[in-house]
Design brief:
It is a single chain. The chain is of the alpha/beta class. It is 44% helix and 17% strand. The chain has seven helices and seven strands, in the order βαβααββααβαβαβ. Helix 7 (149-155) links the parallel strand 6 and strand 7. It is globular and about 45 Å long.
């Protein structure tokens, strides 16, 4: 299996856009955040957890919590990561192995690498696969100070420079 991992300079860098350009269909694209979205979807089914529009995520308040979709995603992701730093990476590796062995995926793209420990875990667990890491550089990306984007940039096999706004 060919595994393409994508990190980026921040929100809006174009990680998912690049992933879509590298694949034939959406079923080849995998995201750690989708694991978190699935957990929250079960807990609060009345919300569109898979809506990626920045305005929806930052302005939609979830029930009596008075927290936004984005806050819930971040809090659940970090909360579970505090209990087990590799929880999301472990789950994702299991899903990627299933996709390879049971669904016949020959190429998959992981479009949201944000932590070095998760990157290294995935790379080590799947070391027999054909792995390449792209980092999307875009000066207008919204910085994500809680993630390790700069460190991941240094680990990338290739840096893709995004030069214009995507439509």
């Amino acid at each position: 299996m060919k595994l393409i991992m994508i990190s980026g300079d921040g929100q809006g860098a174009g990680r998912t856009f690049l992933a879509r350009k590298m694949t034939d269909n959406q079923s080849q694209i995998f995201s750690i955040v989708n694991l978190i979205r699935s957990h929250l979807q079960r807990k609060y089914p009345q919300y569109d957890w898979f809506n990626k529009e920045p305005e929806y995520k930052s302005k939609t308040l979830v029930g009596s919590t008075k927290k936004t979709i984005l806050q819930h995603l971040d809090e659940m992701g970090r909360g579970e990561k505090q209990k087990d730093p590799l929880i999301w990476a472990k789950q994702l590796v299991d899903i990627l192995i299933y996709a390879r062995d049971n669904e016949g995926h020959q190429t998959v793209v992981l479009d949201d690498i944000r932590f070095v420990d998760e990157y290294e875990y995935i790379k080590n667990r799947l070391h027999t696969e054909n792995i390449v890491h792209f980092h999307v550089a875009f000066e207008k990306a919204k910085p994500e100070p809680l993630y390790e984007n700069e460190k991941l940039r240094l680990l990338a096999d290739y840096i893709v420079v995004r030069q214009k706004q995507l439509s």
